[in-house]
Design a protein that fits this description.
Blueprint: H1 8-21, H2 33-47, E1 54-55, E2 58-59, H3 66-78, H4 82-107, H5 110-122, H6 124-129, H7 136-156, H8 159-176, H9 179-194, H10 198-205, H11 208-218, H12 220-229, H13 231-247, H14 259-267, H15 272-278, H16 282-286, H17 289-307, H18 320-329, H19 331-334, H20 337-352, H21 354-360, H22 368-375, H23 383-401, H24 406-447, E3 451-452, H25 460-465, E4 479-483, E5 493-499, E6 502-507
Parallel strand pairs: 3-4
Antiparallel strand pairs: 1-2, 4-6, 5-6
Helix pairs in contact: 1-5, 1-24, 2-3, 3-4, 4-5, 4-7, 5-18, 5-24, 7-8, 7-9, 8-9, 8-11, 9-10, 9-17, 15-18, 17-18, 20-23, 23-24
Length: 509
């Protein structure tokens, strides 16, 4: 058997390839977010306007510029491909894991560092976010680095740690805006206030060289964007996409206070139970500076976004880095082998019969489009999906019966779950939901159609179509892409393409 302890970095390297890089081109871009970021990058490539982003020709102020620049660079090197749009996130996600490993190794030990990295690479939300063509993998890298550097400055009082803290906050500010400032600012304040070192905190945040670094790195694009767009930028970015998200629910993304408890249970799989077990050691965590710092980091993110009006699953990821470290340092003592494997076995059994369950409950589903997807569920979740999930279920059952060491068990679980998510679940969903959009776009491009689309729900269509779509009212002779559930708005049409609830039609008299 492989001597795991002697090959920690090799194991993590292989898992990173499996989780973050090999799957980059397996599934089409997912709408809404991946499609929107990728299409805005494609339009930047065409327009050569490297300051302002547009989506289908309309101003897009959702996020700052850095992720678009990195995706643009990737596209210029590798071409307009799904792989290119996702590559910057894959690199950022892998660096995030790598720096977490070295931080944990420095302040705890090599074994804890290995577990922290292993959990990060295999966690459900991280394995998805770390290669998604959106801003969050990059943002989380910069948040983690700014927090690591600030803690290093607190412990060692070396100025280069403080200066790099400001640098990473500035880069985070260029990636997703004020949240990259808020988290290190508030967490460091609470931590140092508790440690009765408020004066040290004030001197840190008002350090002239640090502020200069932030200004030089973080502000020029904002100034250029304001000069180009004026109040439209201020209203669209700061008020609508930042302040309004906390005060009210945007785009129906709301939820109860316990919303993120459910997200944690699912998002931290396959080791989510270990996190909740580790919370029983809160009193012990408070007594140590680093574990206290990590606990405040997670606790602030959890509470802040629990009270936010807009709730999205990936918001909690800003507090995931300390979670993986806290779980790792006590993992072998807290490991619940049988319970964990039983949960995974039942979860995989649910996945195995998911298509059949969906078909069974079709009669009680009220969303018309969801019904259409259920009727076509086997086009995505077919025999390959069933065989793959069944094989992985067999591995979990084997693990349950086999007495392996804790570390070997954790490694097998991490690899198995990562393969399950990236090579069975996501491709199946992509084939059902996103592949028809891609095929329709490629068909429209090949035929030279000028397409109209009355919704912004599927910007990935524009990416593969490599053009803009019109939102004007369709008239005779126009080609329209839509859901089949939207066809009742047209009296007569010719079907040009149809698959899994999506269709391309030409309007007739």
């Amino acid at each position: 058997m492989l001597k795991i302890r002697e090959n920690d970095l090799l194991i993590l390297f292989v898992l990173a390839l499996i989780a973050n890089f090999l799957p980059l081109g397996i599934t089409p871009l997912f709408d809404l977010d991946e499609g929107a970021f990728s299409e805005a990058t494609r339009e930047m490539l065409v327009s050569k306007n490297y300051i302002t982003t547009y989506l289908n020709g309309e101003l897009r102020f959702d996020k700052p510029i850095l992720i678009y620049w990195l995706e643009l660079l990737s596209v210029k090197i590798f071409g307009v491909h799904t792989f290119s749009f996702r590559l910057p996130s894959a690199i950022a996600g892998t660096l995030w894991v790598l720096f977490t490993y070295f931080f944990t190794k420095k302040y705890f030990d090599k074994k804890s560092a290995f577990y922290a990295a292993l959990f990060m690479l295999s966690a459900l939300q991280i394995t998805i976010i770390s290669k998604a063509a959106i801003a969050d993998a990059l943002l989380n890298l910069f948040i983690a680095l700014s927090m690591f550097c600030f803690y290093g400055y607190y412990k060692e009082r070396k100025k280069h740690y403080l200066y790099t803290t400001f640098l990473f906050i500035a880069l985070g500010f260029l990636t997703k805006g004020p949240v990259a400032i808020m988290i290190p600012f508030v967490v460091s304040f609470i931590f140092l206030l508790y440690k009765k070192e408020f004066g040290f905190w004030l001197k840190s945040i008002f350090n002239p060289i640090g502020l200069l670094i932030f200004i030089v790195v973080g502000l020029p694009w904002y100034i250029l964007e304001y000069q180009e767009q004026g109040s439209l930028f201020i209203d669209g970015f700061f008020f609508k996409h930042n302040l309004s998200r906390f005060g009210s629910s945007m785009e129906n993304h709301s939820g109860k206070f316990y919303y993120y408890v459910i997200v944690l249970l699912i998002g931290l799989m396959p080791f989510s139970l270990m996190f909740f077990k580790s919370l029983t050691h809160v009193k012990k965590f408070i007594k140590d500076d680093l574990t206290l710092f990590l606990l405040i980091w997670f606790g602030f993110v959890f509470l802040f976004f629990s009270f936010s009006g807009t709730k999205l699953p990936h918001y909690i990821i800003y507090g995931y880095t300390p979670v993986f470290i806290l779980v790792a340092i006590g993992f072998e003592k807290n490991f619940m082998r049988q319970t964990l494997l039983l949960v995974l076995i039942f979860f995989t059994m649910f996945l195995l019969f998911f298509p059949e369950i969906a078909v069974a409950i079709k009669s009680i589903v009220h969303d018309k489009f969801a019904v259409v997807l259920i009727e076509n569920v086997y086009s995505g979740f077919g025999w390959f999906y069933h065989v793959s999930v069944l094989a992985l279920l067999g591995i979990f059952i084997w693990l349950y019966k086999k007495e392996l060491s804790i570390k070997h068990t954790a490694v097998v679980i991490a690899f198995t779950f990562t393969i399950l998510v990236n090579y069975a679940i996501l491709p199946a969903y992509g084939k059902l939901m996103q592949l028809p959009i891609k095929k329709a776009a490629l068909f429209a491009k090949e035929q030279g159609y000028h397409v109209k689309m009355h919704t912004r729900q599927f910007p990935s269509f524009n990416v593969y179509y490599q053009g803009l779509t019109s939102k004007e009212k369709a008239k005779e002779g126009d080609v329209v892409f839509c859901k089949v559930t939207s066809l009742d708005r047209y009296k007569k049409y010719e079907t040009l393409y149809k698959e899994n609830g999506f269709t391309l039609i030409r309007i007739e008299k």
